[in-house]
Structure formats: C-alpha cells, structure tokens
C-alpha cells in the first residue's frame, strides 16, 4: 500500500486498520515518505460521520508514532487551533485537535498540558464552543480536583454577562466520569464560592426553562387538524409530526395517508412522509413506491424509509430495480431486507463488484444494508460477501456493526480480525480485544 500513496491516504482518512498494519511492516524510508500525509490527517477531521463514529485520536496518534512524527504533532495542532475561524463549522476538527493535545499531555508533554489549561480559560471567557472539548480533556488529564477551577473560570464569565446561557455540560461530563454522588459532595464544599455559585445558578435557570418546554411538548396535539397545519407550515422534516405519527389514532393516520396519495407539492410530501418514518403506512404501497423514485432526493429517501416497514411483492420488485440503478443500490439493499429469496446472494455479489467506484455515501448505504441482511439471513454466501465489503465501508461505527455481525455468526476471518484490531473505531478495537481475550489469542493489539 505504501507504494500507492493515494491508497494509503484513503485508508488513513477512512480510519482503516490496514493503514497502521502497513506502517508497522514498512521500511523507515517508506514511513518517512508518508509523514506529511499523517500530519495532515492529524489536523483535519476526515471521518465519514464524526458525530456517529466518535473519537479517532488514538488511531491518529498510533499513525504519528509509527511514522516518527508524534513529537511534531503539538506545534501542528496548536497552529491549527489558532487558525480555527468558526468553531461551529469546524466543530469536529476542533474536537480532534483537543483530543490529540490531551494524548500528548498524557504522554508527558507538559507544554501540551499547559496549553489545554490556558485555552480552556480563554474559551470560557469568550463563550467559545471549544470549552466543551477542553473541559472533558482536562478532567481526563487532571481528575476531579480540577473541576472547581474550571467552574470558576466559566462562573466569572457568567457574572460579567447576564444574558449568557450555560447548559451545564461540563458538570454532566464530570458526573459521567466520576459519579454523581462524588461530584455533588465536591460541589457542596465549594457552593459558597461566588463564581461556582454563579455557574450552578445559571445551570438551574436553564434547566427550569427546559422542563417547561418539555411539558409543552408532552401536551402534543394529536388531532388530524393539527397535523395538517404542521404539514402546511413546515414543508420539511418535522420531529413533531414523527411523534404525532406514533401517537395519533388509526383513523387520523389513514386520513393523512389519503392526503399523501393525492399530494404533489414536494415540500408537503417531505412533511407527510415524516409521519411514516416510524408509523407503518396503512394503505396500498403503490403511492410510496412511486415516491421512492421521485426526482426530489429527500422525498425518495423518506419514501424508501417508509416502505421499509412493509412487506409486499411490489416492494421486492422495486428493491430489485433499485439494486440495478446507479446511485440507488443502498436503497435496493434496504428494501430487500424483508423480501429475501434464494439466489439473492448472487445478485448482491454482482452489484457489490462495482462498489469500489461508488461515492462514500453510496458505499456506506449499501454496505450498511448488506450488514443488516447478512445478520438477519446469515447464509455462508452473504457472510462471505459481507467480510469482503469491510474496507469499502467508510463509516467506522458501521464497520463495528459489520464485525459484530460476522462474529455473532462465527464468520469473522482472521485477516479481518487483525485489521479491525487497529481500526479508528475505539468501540471496534475494544470488541476485537474482547474476542481475543475469550479466544485466548496471544497476538492482541497493544500500544504502538
């Protein structure tokens, strides 16, 4: 792989364990050749779905150590933090940078530890979203004893700004790490500190508002008239309509389904389909099947999700058609789930033979749905196909589901077990380590 720099870079950006395995077996010259690629990956989050996949910092630190650039990571990370212009748009980049700074500090880099503390204070003063990353990092690094200091930093800023909102996330993080009783005991010791008190009061103020809003949501109107008004008002995704679909009377849901049968406006269709993301569509699926091939991609996406609740020969026919439609293979695999027949493995294998040319979104959808199929219908052919698709899944969280499905059905090949042990997914690493422990393997992955 190191002979093909582009292939190595793709594997590293996707968080595949094969990138680290190749580094472990590479010559010094080969490792030197990819140092710039590794440093670049450290300062730019390249996860397919960072929110779902979780942290990849341990994986990146492993790559940096294997290539000998770990000592160079700190200045690159600090420059990247200084260059952040919009911590909302660059939210996941920011998380990755702070996590790497924390790992450097854990490895004894006192400069990194000081930067974490100083930058938390700056973020607290400026009401910068970075505070939500620096806070947990410092709790991990310094333990519970640093919590009062951090609360004072935020509390001082709150006392200067009466309009600033504080959601108490740092306190929740501390309770998750150290336990609610331990944290509450510490707060009682410091509750008369005016800065700590300012923090706690502002958190309680917001909690009161959230409780009031929750009470309003609990009183959701479940009338058909309300749902029709919401369809007209929102014309897009509306979580309230999804909740309405779960709680409304059968007759009202059936009436809204009749509305959908004759609706032509794409905005209203999007809103109506929200109802049927969880509540099964109560009519003949013909209209949903037509919408599954609608020109508006959001309408077609939601129609496919709604069809996923139904079993009908015409849904299988649609599934087979979508499997042969470029860009819709993932939807076809999803709809096949409740309609599998003997011989479908050959069709899926043929479709999968073209997957390397697809976009990351297309690969993600197809492999995710083949994972569900193979788990529900664990034939030897489907499980073999699933293992072969591992490296095509760009989402680390979905790779973890894939490996779990193979392991449950005793179909996890040794080569995949080895690669998964070095994946960017910390969940997947832990799962493979647990398998190795159960199986008594001696070649467990360790720290680089």
Shape, per Cα inertia axes: globular
Radius of gyration, CA atoms, in whole angstroms: 26 Å
Q: Overall pLDDT, averaged?
A: 93
Number of strands: 0
| Element-by-element helix/strand order | HHHHHHHHHHHHHHHHHHHHHHHHHHHH
N-to-C span: 20 Å
Largest sheet: none
Low-confidence stretches: 442-446
User: What is the number of helices?
Assistant: 28
Q: What is the oligomer described by this structure? A: single chain
Q: Specify the helix fraction band.
A: over 70%
Strand content: under 5%
Structural class: mainly alpha
Protein name: HEAT repeat protein
Organism: Deinococcus yavapaiensis KR-236
Would you give an account of this structure?
This is HEAT repeat protein. This protein has 448 residues and is an all-alpha fold. Among the domains are: 43-218, no CATH class; 220-283 and 294-305, no CATH class. Helices cover 71% and strands 0% of the residues. Helix 4 packs antiparallel against helix 6. The longest helix has 25 residues, at 194-218. Mean pLDDT is 93; it is low at 442-446.
Write a brief caption for the model.
The chain is built from 28 helices and no strands.
């Amino acid at each position: 792989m190191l002979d093909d720099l582009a292939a190595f870079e793709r594997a590293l950006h996707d968080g595949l364990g094969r990138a680290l395995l190749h580094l472990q077996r590479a010559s010094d010259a080969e490792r030197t050749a990819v140092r710039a690629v590794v440093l670049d990956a450290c300062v730019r989050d390249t996860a397919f779905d960072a929110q779902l996949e979780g942290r990849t910092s341990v994986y990146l630190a492993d790559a940096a150590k294997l290539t000998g650039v770990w000592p160079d990571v700190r200045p690159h990370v600090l420059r990247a933090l200084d260059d952040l212009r919009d911590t909302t748009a660059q939210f996941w980049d920011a998380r990755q940078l702070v996590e790497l700074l924390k790992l450097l500090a854990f490895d004894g880099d006192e400069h990194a530890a000081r930067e974490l503390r100083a930058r938390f204070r700056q973020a607290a003063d400026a009401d910068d979203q970075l505070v939500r990353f620096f806070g947990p990092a410092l709790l991990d690094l310094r333990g519970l004893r640093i919590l009062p200091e951090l609360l004072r930093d935020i509390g001082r800023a709150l006392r200067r700004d009466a309009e600033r909102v504080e959601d108490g996330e740092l306190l929740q993080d501390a309770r998750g790490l150290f336990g609610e009783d331990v944290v509450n005991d510490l707060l009682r010791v410091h509750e008369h500190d005016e800065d700590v008190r300012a923090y706690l009061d502002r958190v309680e103020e917001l909690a009161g508002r959230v409780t009031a809003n929750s009470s309003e949501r609990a009183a959701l109107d479940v009338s058909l008239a309300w749902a029709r008004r919401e369809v007209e008002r929102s014309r897009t995704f509306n979580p309230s309509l999804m909740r309405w679909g779960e709680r409304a009377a059968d007759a009202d849901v059936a009436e809204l389904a009749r509305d959908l049968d004759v609706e032509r406006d794409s905005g209203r269709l999007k809103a109506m389909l929200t109802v049927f993301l969880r509540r099964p569509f109560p009519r003949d699926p013909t209209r949903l099947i037509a919408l599954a091939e609608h020109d508006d991609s959001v309408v077609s996406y939601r129609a496919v999700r709604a069809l996923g609740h139904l079993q009908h020969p015409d849904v299988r026919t649609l599934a087979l058609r979508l499997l042969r439609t470029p860009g819709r293979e993932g939807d076809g695999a999803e709809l096949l789930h409740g309609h599998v027949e003997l011989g479908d493995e050959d069709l899926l294998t043929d479709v999968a033979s073209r997957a390397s040319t697809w976009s990351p979104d297309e690969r993600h959808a197809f492999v995710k749905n083949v994972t569900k199929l193979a788990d529900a219908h664990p034939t030897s052919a489907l499980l073999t196909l699933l293992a072969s698709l591992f490296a095509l899944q760009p989402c680390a969280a979905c790779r973890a589901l894939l490996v779990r499905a193979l392991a449950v059905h005793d179909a996890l090949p040794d080569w995949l077990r080895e690669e998964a042990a070095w994946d960017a997914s910390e969940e997947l690493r832990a799962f493979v380590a647990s398998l190795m422990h159960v199986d008594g393997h001696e070649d467990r992955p360790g720290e680089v």
